[in-house]
Amino acid sequence: VQLQASGGGSVQAGGSLRLSCEASGIYFKNKNVSWYRQAPGKQREFVASLNTNGIRDYSDSAKGRFTISRNNSKATAYLQMTSLRPEDTAVYSCLVGIVWGQGTQVTVSS
């Protein structure tokens, strides 16, 4: 089982990024997917989730700015992030079922 996260980078405030989390060795389409993030010196926090029934949930910080989606045929989950703020700077990690992917760094400068 492997989860490959990508799409992180450095952007200015107000910019956008799309994170991807590609799964292999796992029956992706029957797994809930989630994104979490961990900023320096802080605990990991929930960002967004999408279950197998298509129900989405977002943190208050992510609502209205981030969109979680999935492509089961590609075994990939996505997190589209818009209107990024410096406080969004963190390492973002995906969770598929109970398997964690490695993180991808997102840095937002003011």
Defining traits:
mainly beta; single chain; 0% helix; 110 residues; four-stranded antiparallel β-sheet
At a glance:
The protein is mostly beta strands.
Q: Tell me the distance between the termini.
A: 38 Å
Specify the biggest β-sheet. Answer: 7 strands, mixed
Strand residue content: over 45%
Query: Structural class given helices, strands, pairing?
Result: mainly beta
Query: What is the rounded Rg?
Result: 13 Å
**Strand and helix order:** EEEEEEEEEEE
What is the helical fraction, as a range of percent?
under 10%
- In round numbers, the mean pLDDT is 97
Overall outline:
globular
Quantity of strands, as a count: 11
Separate helix tally: 0
Unreliably modeled segments: none
Write the topology of this structure.
Elements: E1 2-6, E2 9-12, E3 17-24, E4 33-38, E5 45-50, E6 56-58, E7 66-71, E8 76-81, E9 90-96, E10 99-100, E11 104-109
Task: Write up this protein.
The protein is built from no helices and eleven strands. Helices cover 0% and strands 54% of the residues. The protein has 110 residues and is mainly β.
